[in-house]
Amino acid sequence: MEFPNRLLHNNKAAASSLTSETERIMHLYVKILKGNECEIAVSPSHRISEVKDILAMQISIPTDEQKLVFKGKTLVDDKRLSEYNITDGSKLFLVPQRGGSTTSTPCTPVKSPSSHFDTAKSTAPLWDKLYQFLKRHFTPQDAEKVLNEFQKDFEKGLSSMSLDDIERLAQSKLLRNSSSGACSNNTMR
Fold this sequence. Notes:
The chain is of the alpha+beta class. Helices cover 52% and strands 14% of the residues. The model is unreliable at 1-22, 99-121 and 184-189 (pLDDT under 50).
């Protein structure tokens, strides 16, 4: 008789520790692509859909226009935060999606959260310079073909990168530029 009682007691202790684990509050940081970063308080037992509801209230982006990413993985609405090993202080990325529901409620301005990165517009000077360079080595028709293939490869490579990869790449380039600037200042003296 003692054995089932001990087993029952151990199960209660395990259940209470599980409950306390899922009920604790943790703070997550959400970086909005091309926007600000905000902080939300949730528990590990929250579903991704509930996190999106909290974000919709806080930043006025409808839940069906939100894509949440953690460590390069898109988070699925019906899973819980704990299933992704998201812990206190973790950083999620929010990618606003266009073409979701068209609501007439205006979004709270948060440093252009719904604007998307348009590589064609923002990299036009790069493509122009590259085309000018290629024309020196190829016929104009061949230079255009090479440029088009390069643009396709560039877009493919960029779209396969996670937001973490892009952030690491940008940080490494910024650090390299700032250290090369310091070196050039020293050599000028």
